[in-house]
Structures are given as C-alpha cells and as structure tokens.
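Input chain follows. Return structure tokens only.
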Amino acid sequence: MDKILITGQDLSVDQIVAVCRERAVVELSAESREAVLASRKIVDDLVAEKQVVYGITTGFGKFSDVVISTDECKDLQKNLIITHAVGAGDPFPEDVARGMLLLRINNLSKGYSGIRLETLETMIAMLNKGVTPFIPEKGSLGASGDLAPLSHMVLVMLGLGKAYYEGELLSGAEAMKRAGIPVIELSAKEGLALNNGTQAMTAVGALALHDAKQLLKIADIADALCFEAQNGVMDALEDRVHAIRPHEGQGKTAKNLRRLLADSKNTTRQGEIRVQDAYSLRCSPQIHGASKDAVKYVQGRVDIEINSVTDNPLIFKEDRAGISGGNFHGQPMALPFDFLKIAEAELANVCLLRLYDCAVLRGGSGLGEQGARTSGERGQHPELGGPGGPCQHGYHCGASGGGNRQECAPCPRDGAHGCLPGHRYARQQGTGTRHAGGIRPGAQGLCLP
C-alpha cells in the first residue's frame, strides 16, 4: 500500500480508514515540516521575550492571568496532560484511537500550533509502528475539545498510561520501548497543542461516516431483494416519477434499484398483482434518498474538520501572534453527527418494516412459495424447528430498532456545565458522536439480519 502523505490540507475519510483499519503508513510532507519549524520558532521567541500569551506563558482556564516563568513551562505542560487524563469506561476501539493520532498529526502539520517537529515525529512513529494508546471512551463534553481522551493519548508519548502493541496491552513506557520509540518531554505550548481539539469525536465520526456509506449500499441491495420476494411494483421506480421531485439521493436510489432489478423475473407492473406496494417498498427511494442526502451533508462537514486547526492558542507567522480563540469547540461536529445517527436509524427503520412485511405480516408469503411451505412444515413437524420462525425476526427487529431510536436522541440539547463560569457552553458533543458510531451495528443487522 502506498504511503499517505500528510499535508494538513487534503486528508480524506478513505485515507483515514486505510490508516486506522488497514495500517497504511503515513509520512510528513516537506512543506509541513517547514511550516511546523517556523511555527515553533515563534513560540520559542515568545517564551524568550517573556510575552504574555495564553497557554504558553500563562496558566489555563481560571489561571489564564497567571504568568508562568520559563523554568515552570515544562512542568506546566506535563501537569496539564496528567490532570486531564481522567477518562472512564471501556476503551475506544483501536481504529478510533489510531484515528485520534492521525487526525492530531494532520492538525498539527498545518503549522499553526507551535509543536516541535520531534514531538510530531514521535506521533508518526507510534502510528506507523502500531503503538496504540489505551483511551477510555467517556469523559469528553466536547466544549473545550476532547481534553480527556486526547490527554490519555499523550500520556503514552511521555512513557505514562497504557498502550496496545502487537496484540498486548502494556504500560506506555514498555510499549514505546518495544517499538523502539524514545519517549519525550513536553516543552512550552505542547501540552495544550496536543490535548485541545476535536480529534476524538471526529475520529469516531469519520469512521462512522464511512460505515454509514457502506450501509447505504447494503440497504439498497436489501431493498431490491424485498422487491423480488414481494413481487414489487416497478412503476414507482420510473425515472419520470423522481425527475419532478429532484432530490439527489431519491433519484440515485431509484436508479440504483432499477439497475439491481433489471433482469428480475419476480417484479411486476402496476395492476398485474396489485395496484401499489406498501410504503416500505414504494417510498424506499424517498426514504433511502433522504438518508443519502444527510450522509452527503455530513461528509462535507467532516472533510472540513479533518483538515482544520482546532487547538488553542493559534500561532500566526505573519505577525508573530498567538491568538486565543475557540476552534476547539465541538459544536460544528455535534450537529452533523446527530444528523448522521438519525439518518442511519431511519434507514434501519424502513428495513425493519420491509422485513416485517416479508416474514410476518404476510405470514411467510413474502418469502415465496418455498418459504411459506417450509414455515408450514415446521408447524407440523416440531423436530424441524417448531412454528413461528418468522416471528423471531419481528422480535429481533423490534429490539434493534428500539435501541437505534434511543441512541439517535439529539445530544447537543443536553447541555452540561463546565468546571468554570467561562466554560459553560458544553453540549455533550462527545457522547453524541459515540452514539453515531454505535447505531451502525444495529442498523446493519436490520438491513441484513
């Protein structure tokens, strides 16, 4: 597999999947190296000149007005990471943890963060050699970025925390030693550059987005199978029907279904068996299409975020400025990922209805003559499995569909107070994004149970 060049400008979701799940190797571009070095020089100059810049020569949060001496800078950055590594619960899957590393590398490579080149190269070595930090899932509101998860990621770079290496969960120090990667000591600005951003929620969301796109393909195929099983009426899929309501996803779904069913001997025309099908078949272009349009919207937001700078303060080379802003806030990702989980849940709901119609409502007739006959034989011969087999599909659908609907409740509406008056607008972005990733297995089970 070719190396993926990190530029900070053009990382894609497909490349994220290649690195996180297929272990593709990454390499920093020459342009990014120059940008990182130039940004770091400004930070060193600001420290040497004793300029007052948030997070570089001052404390954090409530202590932003407290000036920190040069001698205390290193301790400040290390303590920031240790005190914020307070996550709880099960660990993120390894592909998500690798995604956090990759997205943070891409963020820092743009040259607005003041990170040292050797610190960035340590992260790249961890990714390429398979040192994957153990990062608890819970602990991020997303308001100040993903402080807790990213702090757990950084612990390993310092020889602390825990990490996976070659299938073993080890201490951070041991994992780095076995991989032959020297641990580092953080310098001015680096702790804040590493843990203040949206890379946890975006890693989860980017992988969930990729899986949602695969789910859309599966759902269309499952829909076509249900058209076959139920002698579906093809008239509702005609291009002229969708041309006069030209939503992109709707038209693409109808076209794809016509392609999948082009050689079918089981589908019918209007009036041959029935005049029209149930909504779950007849309206599937509109329903699937709406989810496709939602996924496309989310794709656009993710493409922006994965190539953005989300830490604080930001270092601008043109006037040597260190500006304290709010690019770490997760709201631009929270709303799209809520949209994504609703789109996935709705796709699963219509698959649920089609399956119910095939297996339960029609008493097995939707499964064809052989399906109905087999179901009847089982009723007469318990040794073949007993009656009521199709009903179990209904139970499965009800349980999975109900779980999906609970997961897709909008999390940003559930605000929580941060620790300080200045940090009040915290909207549960991290929780919502984890739900977006959690819906996919249940949704896939409904599309193809």
